[in-house]
Amino acid sequence: MLVPDESAGAGLPEPIPAADTCPTLAEFASEWWVTYVVPNNKPSEQARKEMILRVHLVPFFGNRRLDAISPRQIEAYKGRKLQAGLKASTINTQLAVLQKLLRTAVEWGRMRRRDDVWKLRLLPEPEREFDWLQPHEAGKLLRSAKAMSPKWHAFFFVALRTGMRKGEIQGLHWREVDFDRRRITVRYTNWRGRLGSPKSGKSRVVPMTGDLATALKAWRTRSQGKLVFPGREGGLSRCHASPSRALRRALKRAGLRRMRFHDLRHTFASHLVLERCSLREVQLLMGHHSITMTERYAHVADDHLAKAIDVLDGLGVVEQDEGPEPG
Description:
With 327 residues, the protein is mainly alpha-helical. 50% of the residues lie in helices and 5% in strands. The chain has a 3-stranded antiparallel β-sheet with strand order 1-2-5, with no helix packed on it. A two-stranded antiparallel sheet has the order 3-4. A hairpin with a 4-residue loop joins strand 1 (177-178) and strand 2 (183-186). The protein is globular. The chain starts with 24 loop residues before the first helix and ends in a 19-residue tail after the last helix.
């Protein structure tokens, strides 16, 4: 699975040989995957780390002993990935996996600690921008989805009114939808037919609006089984991309710009801010670990206030003819 590229790091000075007991990155990556990643990570995180190891880290560092990976080689890795067109955030994610692998090797006594590689220098990341639908655009999307199918109408309604992630909606069971108390408990996320915990690792409760409750009750009469949105065979959907494809079709039918499914989550948060909800309330509803993640939506309110102030433009100002004022 993880085969090193013998030419990786060519042109760099050879590192000082390490003790015979220290494994190469390729050797330890296989052990780390089985012993640490699989027991401790959700299926989606396992898939992400496996890809990073197989496609990026092992081809570059795989033939080097762990305690011989130098800061210069790490800088060379960053440079190569930047030249390949990868974003800084993507490279930083790869470096985080490398750092965790090295720290685990130290904890397990497979290498000695080296402070020069213990703290990896990350690349500066530009502030992430996101797209979201204005309220009237969200309405157009829902009308378009309703014309497509009752399923996608209900699916997008849940996304817009709860901010749930795609996998969380796919993993939602009817027992977690409480119509009496009008709330949804987010307990699971679905990753290609496998249930795991939500991204935060904790369940959360999201109140249902009246219009969402009505939409879900209508969908309940058509949906069968324990899952709110089952796959084709009635169980968990194995197709993680199908909601995104359906969203593209609905947006096109509605005459709206193309966007990611995750932008529906941004739309939910932005609408809350527009309606004067506090960032703390938005944080709890979104399930963010830190208020820092929620603060990205603060500018939505600022933009709205900038437009609202236009109502004062010209208020109380009397136009006067040019020339001297009457004596």
